[in-house]
Amino acid sequence: MNNCPYAIWPGTLAGSGMPQLPMTGFRLDSGKSVKIPAVPGWSGRIWARTGCSFDEYGVGTCQTGDCGGRLECDGKGATPPVSLFEITMGNGNEKDYYDISIVDGYNLPLVAAPRGVYSPCNATGCASDLNMGCPKELQVVGGEGSREGQVVACKSACDAFGLDQYCCSGEFANPTMCRPSFYSKLFKRACPKAYSYAYDDGSSTFTCKAYEYDIVFCPYAGRTKRPGDLLPAPPVKTSLEKVTEMVSSPPVETSLEKVTEMVSSSNILSPFPVMILLLIVNLFF
């Protein structure tokens, strides 16, 4: 459920040895939604590209999150900086492991809310607009279109400076030597439940046995609208604000019923055991 006042182009990438999802790249206008099935045991990541332009053959570019200049990512990963939803699904009764990562930088706020099978599960995400407070040296500025001159993404310190201590590489490629940097601490302060650097596992990885994940893009946007962006508000406005509050300030624990009400205006729950990834793009208001 996404309040972004512009179209986004979600991309998906399967982990090593995993089959790609049925859709690896596509356009989603405001107010549209797509449900994508995934096989048990699947692992991979999902993100949103912005500022894209493609021709009739699916060739083009995106300002953020580009995956090889194609509409269909088809095995290509996202070009940083980009906000990521990452998941490894369990087989049978095994639990899922999931997180929101801004280790590779940030382009959009997003929230992930699982619908648990047996018990309540944690929503997680980064609902803050890091682009608004992004340090000058990390900023990516839009060069054309409706967002020209605006900060459209915020680089990680690794991407910006390429130093081992920021990238957790070389002699820093272990949790003892690689510690939070000034920049990762800024990210962590704004988004306490999201991965902010490579070894940020303790407060950023979540588990659940779920049959569906709701991925919400731009959940905060209704609070920062400009007069020119005003559109009729959908009936889920209060629900989205509640999810944003849950993710912005810990703890993030909630019941299945509350998460369902907060993330979707529909209470219809899938009866099938097949794992489903749900990407929902909401009308900006």
What would you call the structural class? Answer: alpha+beta
Q: Based on CA inertia axes, which overall geometry fits?
A: globular
The number of domains? 1
Spatial strand arrangement across the major sheet: 1-3-6-7-12
Contiguous low-pLDDT stretches (5 residues minimum) are 223-285
Protein name: Thaumatin-like protein
Please outline the helices and strands.
Layout: E1 9-14, E2 33-37, E3 43-49, E4 53-54, E5 60-61, E6 84-88, E7 96-101, E8 110-116, E9 124-126, E10 139-141, E11 151-154, H1 157-161, H2 164-167, H3 182-190, E12 206-208, E13 210-217, H4 237-248, H5 256-263, E14 276-280
Helix pairs in contact: 4-5
Protein name: Thaumatin-like protein
InterPro entries: Osmotin/thaumatin-like_sf, Thaumatin, Thaumatin_CS
Structural summary, described in words:
This protein has 285 residues and is an alpha+beta fold. The protein has one domain (9-156, 182-280): Thaumatin. It has five helices and 14 strands. It has helices at residues 157-161, 164-167, 182-190, 237-248, 256-263, and strands at residues 9-14, 33-37, 43-49, 53-54, 60-61, 84-88, 96-101, 110-116, 124-126, 139-141, 151-154, 206-208, 210-217, 276-280. A five-stranded antiparallel beta sheet has the order 1-3-6-7-12, with no helix packed on it. A five-stranded mixed beta sheet has the order 2-14-13-8-9, with helices on one face. A two-stranded antiparallel ribbon has the order 4-5. A hairpin with a 5-residue loop joins strand 4 and strand 5. The longest helix has 12 residues, at 237-248. Pfam families: Thaumatin. This is Thaumatin-like protein.
